[in-house]
């Protein structure tokens, strides 16, 4: 079994995925607009260039997404996409990138469980947690 987050964007999925690919050093595996697909006749002319499905590989996991029709779009709530990053400097770099024109809920900082931990909603509306964990201490369960 494998769990993959699936994000819905308000018309800027392509821009978000290109940004994430560069920031995370990730590979976009697929990015399909509605135009030319079997669903092309099911969306309006101004939605043809919007993304029907996108997938990228980040480390050994996948992040998937699409553009949501404007009348159906809802801001994500009750969840965040968690990125586990081993190096504190890399965690700081990624957090800084996601924070540009974003909304920081918790600044990146040291906690009792992490060298660095922070929460941010990026400029595309995607909510993230950045975690650079400390080794688990024996007897702490």
UniProtKB/TrEMBL annotation:
Residues 3-130 form the PhnB-like domain. This is VOC family protein. Pfam families: 3-dmu-9_3-mt. SUPFAM superfamilies: Glyoxalase/Bleomycin resistance protein/Dihydroxybiphenyl dioxygenase. InterPro entries: Glyas_Bleomycin-R_OHBP_Dase (IPR029068), PhnB-like (IPR028973).
């Amino acid at each position: 079994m494998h769990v993959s987050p699936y994000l819905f964007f308000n018309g800027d999925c392509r821009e978000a995925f290109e940004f994430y690919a560069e920031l995370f050093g990730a590979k976009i595996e697929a990015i399909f607009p509605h135009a030319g697909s079997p669903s092309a006749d099911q969306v309006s002319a101004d939605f043809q260039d919007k993304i029907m499905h996108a997938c990228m590989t980040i480390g050994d996991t996948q992040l998937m997404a699409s553009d949501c029709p404007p009348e159906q779009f809802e801001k994500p709530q009750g969840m965040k996409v968690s990125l586990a990053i081993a190096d504190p400097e890399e965690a700081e770099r990624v957090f800084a990138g996601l924070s540009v024109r974003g909304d920081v809920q918790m600044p990146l900082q040291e906690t009792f469980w992490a060298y660095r931990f922070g929460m941010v909603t990026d400029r595309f509306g995607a909510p993230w947690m950045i975690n650079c964990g400390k080794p688990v201490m024996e007897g702490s369960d």
